[in-house]
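User: structure tokens for this one?
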Amino acid sequence: MLFGRRVKEESAVSPDVARYLKDSLKAVNLKADIETQEKILAYVNLMIKWNRAYNLTSVRDPKQIIARHIMDSLSILPYIEGEQIIDIGSGAGLPGIPLALMLPYSDFILLDSNGKKTRFLTQVVRDLGIDNISVANERVEDFRPGYRFDVVMCRAFSSIRDMLLLGKHLCAKEGVFLAMKGIYPAAEMTNLPDGFKLVGVHELQVPGVEGERTLVRLTPVVKTEAAIMAH
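Assistant:
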């Protein structure tokens, strides 16, 4: 495996960190082959390298990056259904890059308005040879790809309300919005816009991370013909 050898030669991530990733995946019953694990570690290495100039994350320790970023992103894997997925406000590529590596047959777009962040994302995609990710440097409300997505997800967007209002044109009629949060966002849940339905709220389990992690799932409300006629 040429890729594996190249990663080991260039990576500042130690074998101990590699074992930590393997153990973390095992703890939540996630299966990833060796090449996928190597690509995750190469991504962590690039994040550490670029972080000095691009301020991608306040987390510096490789194991903490795996716990607080990689495993946190992968915690929503059971709720990803569909082939067209967009990560809005992707930042350093979270949760999009870890999920795309685990779901090679789904297509991902990583969307961010920050040019520095999208340059980093483009470099990661190129260096790791990830062929199911496209990177877009645009504002959410201005992005018009010409089709809609099965999943519209975000990990660091300002509020659920903003996510829904600014990203509603991106979600397919039977698609889903996935909003990753810390503690249950009680105040935000009382301020949801019309036209959306809550599907579920899920407590996420992330090995090595203390504190609550929550996923909120919502779908667009599709009006029936009778409902439209009533108005």
